[in-house]
């Protein structure tokens, strides 16, 4: 039941990298903001002083509201603090103007976006600059860590230099710090170190909640809030479902043959789906206004990934045009970035068709909720040995999987899905085209 990003209305301040009164130089990271799917480092586009922080760590700010003020000189800091206490929050990060200068904003904005916002809507150009690495030094060793990981390491008294990062390019993420802190506490007699929850590889998004006490209330995380909004929006679409049984013996054999080359089953299914969509473009279409629909130029396969606190759908763009080996490498990169909360909006909000695979958990069949803005989503069940009647009338055993497609009935009809699923089954049951 994946959720694509909806229009963003608010963001959470994960941590301030700079403190009030600190001098800032153009290009420095100032604050880490949590959008509905990722943490983003915000850089200043101007020199100055961080005069007043208006939304502290952990606070939530609406899109377009003020979170801090920037002063050009130290003398202007008191004026900024005064302005902050009476601010109406019309701008995002405002700069106190000097008599000789015009008013500027701390966060620059692409010219195509008129309003100046710190936390931009997910479906427009990013309003912030995101840095993929944050070098630091500990004991002469170069350390690359997210700002949140650095902050967490300081709170938990963990040396970053002793940690091996699990993020992209060895980057240390919060999960690594938590694990190091937990390991340290278990090997000493000191008081237990508190562990802060962070996105991790999840066999189930609810697995970490097994010890929750009954009756406990929990406020939605930013990601859960986005999922909730998307699911409510889905209720307005007249959807229907069509199931199909596909024999997977040939696909399983191909997977075993090329698995050592880094190919994943997810990439194989995504590739087969993309090639089937080439022949059935209406299943890749989308209706957003209820009055017309669009045949999408690209076939972008979004695949649901479970995370603690929600779901995210990294997108394999142009999956029909990319060879299976490149597609598999791309998928691994996307999953690593998703778990480190480093995906950019275009990497999770551009899907034209969605896959939700619970088969990896042993689920044999299920239905998926249609993500807003897309025409169809396919639920993929587990491949299981099944006793069947063969073509020559004998009894045999073949591996089969159940797939169920949920589609927007305003633009896709039963015959469309039946034809699409027949094509998909042929590609999976005779998968030679998947490696071309």
From TrEMBL:
It comes from the Eukaryota. Pfam families: 2-oxoacid_dh, Biotin_lipoyl, E3_binding. Residues 1-71 form the Lipoyl-binding domain. It is an enzyme of class 2 (transferase). Its cofactor is (R)-lipoate. GO terms for biological process: pyruvate decarboxylation to acetyl-CoA. Residues 144-181 form the Peripheral subunit-binding (PSBD) domain. GO terms for molecular function: dihydrolipoyllysine-residue acetyltransferase activity. One of its GO terms (cellular component) is pyruvate dehydrogenase complex. The keyword DNA repair does not apply. Keywords: Acyltransferase, Lipoyl, Transferase, Transit peptide. Residues 78-109 are annotated as: Disordered. Its EC number is 2.3.1.-. Belongs to the 2-oxoacid dehydrogenase family. This is Dihydrolipoamide acetyltransferase component of pyruvate dehydrogenase complex. It comes from Amborella trichopoda.
